[in-house]
Amino acid sequence: MYKPVEKNVSFPALEERLLKFWEDKEIFRKTDLERQGNPEFVFYDGPPGTNGVPHIGHMMQSALKDLWPRYKTMNGFHVIRKAGWDTHGLPIELTAEKELKLKSKRDIQAFGEEKYIDYCRSTVFRYKDRWEEAIRRVGRFLDMSDPYMTLTNDYIQSDWYLLKLAWEMKLDPDRPELQGKEVSPRWLYKDYRIMPYCCRCGTTLSNFEVAEGYKDVVDMTLTAKFPVKGEANLFIAAWTTTTWTLLSNVALAVGPDVDYAAVKLLEDCTAGMAGDTVILAKERLEAYQDALGKYETVWFKKGRDLAGMTYEPLWDWQKDSKAHRVIADEYVTTEDGTGVVHLALYGEDDFRIIRREGFPLVQNVNDHGYCEANAGQYAGRYFKEAEFDIDVLKDLHARGLLLAKQKHEHSYPFCYRCDAHLMYFARPGWFIRTASYRQEMLTANSHINWQPGHIKAGRFGNWLENTIDWNVTRERYWGSPLPLWTCDEPGCKGEICFGNYEELKAAAEQNTDEALFNEKIGHVDLHKPLIDRVTVPCPDCGKSMTRENFVLDSWFNAGLMFIGQWGYPATPGSKEIFARQYPADFICEAIDQTRGWFYTLVATSTLFALGNKLPEDQWSCYKNVICTDLVLDDEGHKMSKSKGNVINPMGLFDEIGADATRWSFYVTNPWNVRRFSTDYVKESVRDVLLPLWNAYSFFVTYAGVDGWKPSPTTSFPSAHWIVGFWAN
Question: Where residue 723 falls among pLDDT bands split at 50, 70, 90?
Fold first, then answer.
């Protein structure tokens, strides 16, 4: 009755036999068929990118994602386990740029946009087979025969549907966020903002992407002296941590209620020559004592009394009759610097004041990070190149325009993808009013069961509390296209947002089936560059409108998988299956997704729910979430290729086994920091699998000798399961 067991068992070989048994007998498909019609347990799988290989952290996620759906299936629930692949975005573009040896967007344009996009598409599924094999090998039941993929036309039309929903929703005109601003009340609106921008990648980043890339750095900072017009040897002092922004200075700002002092230097010193008079905040005199040396105070004045003063720019090539004036604004403080802020078009408050006061919009450092041709001796130099700050310091010092310099340690944002310095740059973008429905997202969060519980009001709740409007567009190439057409005619404000392909097809001036047919893939393709060939008649003036040249943030793309996985609502049957599969009972990802996928799911599903008037307990598209911590090496360091401490999961499975690996993930709370090594997996073999195997071996041996059979009236469900498992 009982098969003899191997004395020297190979668990990896045993697992392969079991996997073959599952596949030959179609066990996964049968568990799905047998449970159809039963109550649904809804699981959403976050889409990994397949242009990189899976690591051991992904296998921990797979083990956990398999555990609950498998358990619920054994309890009689029907569980759809649909795989998904994240196929858009900057990671894919960076792979293409590296392999094609392209350094910037200018290089991409020279190479050819269409060829570049074709190459991006060709890299998308490069490692898909390795992902599928790793998921199979870890023993996870997941339907990879019919995955959702963010690049398909069905999925893209789900993007379009949600964007049009936001387009059609409007704020009440008395909402404070609309007051004094010339922006649309729509929940999807266009605006110019100072946004974190990567010159290397040529695109803006969202606030949660920026949060991933801060580093502590030491920069050389300086305090410059701006000569007051018509006053000999009178200077206004302003401090900056970003030397390169001085090249675009157009104004100086003071605090209206701040007390300012004019101090006359009594001797030559770091701050200047004897007889020079310097204006700075009274509260900051002590901080600059070493630079100022001996001085006498000429006068004290409030900041509002300084407003209107004019000054000479630091370089002659900056001269502009509409610029270089002192203004007063409440945002100026005396916490650091001189209490005087130099204004250039690279900061949020700077941008606000410059637009309000009508100063010229000057950016002498361009969106590639290089100084413009009119920037004198700095023309053509990169804003973060070595010695740039030093050369500016030397230049100002030689002309008596440097008051002080010092090294300053601070946190600076870097691109989390390519590691380049970010700059804050005025860029256009299309925004969703997430700040306007912040409270609704907090309400949605109140209905989510978080494990661990402190994430709910802590890391995630705090992020929601401080959310700002979400720039859902990127100035890139390989992504879901923004479905907005606008009129280029001067003075015309015609614009249309399309919610699906059929709407575009009906409105277009071309035969879109022909214009969008991609011969390389054999069907209509909604991606760039084909989509940009479609023009639409303007509803206001009748002229041809063109598409806004943006693609969507890939986080937005991934965040609406709760509808995108079904192609809702454009795909036939999608509404019916969505009704059965919303919201999710369970999701699971790592803690870094609190500002990524977890957030975008809530942001998009709350928008969806409000637009469709769903009840409050359905504002979030997930009910329960396990938020795991990171998998570290055995010394507590984050795993990375550069450190050489990454563990190859497939090698581990082949050497020791997937069951032992899974067990090593299950023995501690997954939301605790997890140190991981092959030794921990070997412990699982020694402490769990071998004792279980030996116990079963003992049982088989003596049950066979004695001819023992279980009583037909005795029920041991768990024992039967174990016996059946090992017998197979």
Answer: very low
* The pairing of beta strand 234-240 with beta strand 251-254: unpaired
Verify whether residue 289 is a known catalytic residue: no
Active site residue 679: no
The yes-or-no answer on residue 86 being catalytic is yes
> Of 638, 643, 691, 708, which one is the catalytic site residue?
638
Catalytic residue among 147, 225, 593, 726: 593
Annotation says 36 is catalytic: no
b/e burial code for range 195-224 (CB count within 10 A of at least 16 → b): bbbbbbbbbbbbbbbbbebeeeeebebbbb
Q: Is 672 exposed, middle or buried (0-12, 13-18, 19+ CB in 10 A)?
A: exposed
Question: Pick from 572, 666, 661, 656: which is nearest to 626 by CA?
Answer: 666
Strands (E), 419-535: 422-432, 449-451, 470-471, 473-474, 484-487, 495-497, 517-518, 523-524
CA distances from 591 to 57, 212, 598, 712 (A): 12, 12, 9, 49
Minimal CA–CA distance to 462: which of 571, 594, 612?
594
Cβ-based burial of 600 (10 A; exposed 0-12, middle 13-18, buried ≥19)? buried
- Joined tokens for residue 152: 């398909």
Helix (H, G, I), strand (E, B) or coil at 204: strand
- Over residues 585-626, the pLDDT tens digits come to 999 999 989 999 999 999 999 999 999 999 999 999 999 999
Q: Which residues contact 484 (CB under 8 A, 6 or more apart)?
A: 163, 167, 430, 495, 496, 497, 498, 547, 548
| Coil, helix or strand at residue 446 | helix
- Got the DSSP string for 19-69? HHHHHHTTHHHHHHHHHTTSPB--B-PPPPBTTS---HHHHHHHHHHHHHH
**Cα gap 118→617, rounded to integer Å:** 43
Residue 714 — very low, low, confident or very high, per pLDDT cuts 50/70/90?
A: low
CA dist., res. 274 & res. 278, Å (int): 11
What distance in Å separates the CA atoms of residue 220 and residue 341, rounded to the nearest whole number?
17
45, 61, 65, 86: the active-site residue = 86
Q: Which residue in the list 131, 597, 619, 671 is annotated as catalytic? A: 597
CB 643 within 8 A of CB 637: yes
Neighbour tally for 437: CB within 10 Å: 21
Annotated active-site residue in 315, 555, 671, 693: 555
Phi-psi region of 74 (alpha: psi -120 to 50; beta: other; left: phi over 0): alpha
Q: 88, 129, 84: which is closest to 566 by C-alpha?
A: 84
Question: Which distant-in-sequence residues (6+ apart) come within 8 Å of 694 by Cβ?
Answer: none
Cα–Cα distance for residue pair 466/586, rounded to 1 Å: 26
What end-to-end distance do the CA atoms of the chain give, in Å? 13
- Which residue in 395, 414, 393, 415 sits closest to 404, CA to CA? 393
Tokens of 272: 């200047």
Q: Is 593 a catalytic residue?
A: yes
585 in active site: no
Q: How far apart are CA 238 and CA 342, in angstroms?
A: 6
CB-based contact 583:605 (threshold 8 Å): yes
Q: How many residues belong to the chain?
A: 728
Q: Is 597 a catalytic residue?
A: yes
Which residue among the candidates 641, 679, 709, 712 is catalytic per the annotation? 641
Per-residue model confidence as pLDDT tens digits over 510-563: 999 999 999 999 999 999 999 999 999 999 999 999 999 999 999 999 999 999
